[in-house]
Amino acid sequence: MFTRSLCGLMLVVVVASTLFAQEIAGRLPTVESLPDRVQARIEVRTRAAGNAHNAGRFGMQYFMFITKRWPNAASTPITVAFLGGDRQLRQRIQDTVTEWSQAGTLRFDFIDPASHTFREWSRSDTSFKANIRVAFDGSEEAGYWSMIGVDSSDPTIIKPGEASLMLQGFTTLLPQDWQATVRHEFGHALGLLHEHQIPVGGCDQDFRWEDDTGYVPTQDSYGQYITDAQGRRPGIYTLLAGAPNFWQKDKVNSNMRQLATDSHNKDFGAFDAKSIMKYYFDPSFFRDGTAAHCYSDENLTISDEDKQGIAKWYPPFGSQELSNLLKLQQDTMRQLAPVHNMQQVQTLQSIK
Ligand SMILES: [Zn+2]
């Protein structure tokens, strides 16, 4: 199945996307993807921010990342609410994401202080019931996906009645590797990005983007592109253009391509092949198959480098590290403020 993955040190970014969610026997998995309208809002902001003369000495990616970190996590829990799911499922998810909170100074709070039961949200909410809103119905977008960090409850990007983290189908049947999916998606919710999009990862060179020469588009009964009668294979653009993803080229690029190189790449650490944020890609996605640098088996657990990243970005309350991070984050947010306003205007114009 197509899985997830991310960063050596933490990343940055913007768009979350891509995970291969549901595995259906004999079929390509769906790639993790944010709802199009949410993605559009993020991209508008990203473009605007890229034009702002703010970034200063910080590269764009770093700049975006620092704004997505939960700023007060060391002292204030990150709240989580559910739409659907029984008590046992909610408890399992809570237990699993505790692995993240043990890696850094942060805590997830799942419990409504009034009822002493799991916090809940609904699609008719007009104010945010929680920072992270989990759903299982695939309403906004099918599959598994999560907003990146504070985007989860940023009113310029998402509404109180919208899910910020989707675990579609968990209420019907828990997938065998459900814990890995929960770890990956909550990694996004803390601000982590995909390993294959790290500027230093080198995955761009490994991926087999284009079809084999002379490939004749050939689809199976599911609408998936498959090897043609002469054994020529579809490339990534073609594979993802077919079922079950139906992605256009620009969407493939935003979800799969490496982030641009910038002066802060050195902060990202080396490519971490064991990261829970690293996707599993079928060998056919790579020029060199299983020998590709970016190929690895599916990662199911939070890696040591994942934990180091969380420890770095969520340091202890009262520490100098936290003080430095907060100053950097506040400075960056201040520079971004005009962009926020501009983004809001554009969002209003584009929402029907
Ligand atoms: Zn992901």
From TrEMBL:
SUPFAM superfamilies: Metalloproteases ('zincins'), catalytic domain. Residues 66-229 form the Peptidase metallopeptidase domain. GO terms for molecular function: metallopeptidase activity; zinc ion binding. GO terms for biological process: proteolysis. The keyword Ligase does not apply. SMART domains: ZnMc. Keywords: Signal. It comes from the Bacteria. InterPro entries: MetalloPept_cat_dom_sf, Peptidase_Metallo. Residues 1-21 form the signal peptide. This is Peptidase M12A, astacin. The lineage of its organism: Bacteria, Pseudomonadati, Acidobacteriota, Terriglobia, Terriglobales.
